[in-house]
Amino acid sequence: MGRPPGPRYGFPRKYLPTMRRDPLGFLTRLARQYGDVACFEQMGLEMYALNHPDLAKSVLVTQADKFKKSRALQRARIVLGNGLLTSEGEYHLRQRRLALGAFHKQRVAVYAQVMADYAARARKRWKDGATLNVSAEMHRLTMAIVAKVLFDADVESESQEIREGLSVFLRIFPRMMLPRSDWLLKVPLPMHRKFHRSRERLDATIYRIIEDRRKRNVESDDLLSMLLEARDSEGDGGGMTDEQLRDEVMTLFLAGHETTANALTWTWMLLSENRDVEVKLHAELDRALGGRLPGANDIADLAYCEAVFAEAMRLYPPAWLIGREALEDVEIGGYTIPKGSVVFVSPFVMHRDARFFPEPQRFNPERWLEDGKRAKPGAWPAKTAFFPFGGGPRRCIGEAFAWMEGVLLIATIAQKWRMQLVPGQRIELQPIITLRPRRGIRMTLEARSGRG
Length: 452
Ligand code: HEM
Fold this sequence. Notes:
Elements: H1 15-21, H2 23-34, E1 37-42, E2 45-50, H3 53-62, E3 67-69, H4 71-75, H5 77-80, H6 89-100, H7 105-125, E4 131-133, H8 134-151, H9 159-176, H10 181-184, H11 190-216, H12 223-229, H13 242-255, H14 258-273, H15 275-289, H16 303-315, E5 322-326, E6 330-332, E7 335-337, E8 342-345, H17 347-351, E9 369-370, E10 373-374, H18 399-416, E11 417-421, E12 429-431, E13 435-437, E14 442-447
Parallel strand pairs: 2-8
Antiparallel strand pairs: 1-2, 3-5, 4-14, 5-8, 6-7, 9-10, 11-14, 12-13
Bound molecules: protoporphyrin IX containing FE.
The site of protoporphyrin IX containing FE has 24 residues, from α13, α14 and α18.
């Protein structure tokens, strides 16, 4: 078949700014208008949007070896370096094998206590009637948890600065997609200076975490120790260089909190907008926990809570777009996608497609339950088009971690608090690498009667 359908450009090139200005709207319109395979052009590159789970599976799983990560993630190397998220080929495989031990289900269960304890500390700090930026709170909490369980480090005093630095990076990121962006970033604009300062700040935190551990020289079985002790048995038997270590720690630190923080932020917004769901959640928490802190063994009894988290990630998938670049000509959906083109699959678009999710705009955790028990999809893509963690060899390594953390944090916080959206605020989606609320979300705390 020839070229897939899609907008054709003449003058004015009206689609071009739209993809840059409103990618969620653009990709959604593209899917509805042109179907499961659509083609458009941006900055001289052919881009393909695939809008069916079978096609997404083809890119992420069955033909994964014919693709590499897209340009956007390659550009993210400026902060992430060559870590698990951005590296490719043999090197990626080896590093992934090394890290895997820290993410097995049994290992993640050990993290549960820290997760619930940290959430309990946060909920204790809060005051009835206070207003907080729930996005900032969730970032602070998930950042502290990932630093503690993977690196046994304390970053609480730095979390505000780190969060602000990350926001600067995300704001500047679209500029990095422009040609000659490395040059552009050298132009001494205030925003660029801020970006370089934030990157240095973040680097300093990561190197401090590594140095502290080396100095302490204590036995530990966390991920940082595994990385420090790793030896390349098939190569020269050497360990990782400081730079390699920095890249892995930075990647896990950022990927390990930014996504979960956003998923939780959207969850609180949705709960506040859907009081009937919140009532059911509270009933489950009271029944299953009776006021004590949740742990790994309670997860099985928190099916509704887990469904709430799944449903929030359906509507607001933190990784809203997954991109790849074709390493060779690839056959997909009856078309030949030429070498060098960029392919997108968007969890955001597919999760809101009525073919796969009836009443797609409705926040309805029940869709994940059967007879009150979980019906969470197993290995993706099971029956549904739900893939917030991607798929195939580059599937999220932290998936079990994220489910555990999401459920435990929602349970611990919702046991004591309700959150109400501050009226009149405009909540705007900011889809850059992750799907964030542009200015955060302000919510007012209300102690659940007798539990505050
Ligand atoms: C709700 C939370 C999370 C979501 C939605 C999420 C989503 C994703 C997605 C979609 C990918 C695949 C990207 C691609 O194929 O290009 C990915 C990869 C990755 N995630 Fe997550 N993630 C979450 C939590 C975490 C956590 C908690 C960690 C670590 C503690 C983590 C670490 C990583 C790493 C290291 C990769 C790269 C894996 C590789 O390529 O081998 N993520 N994540």
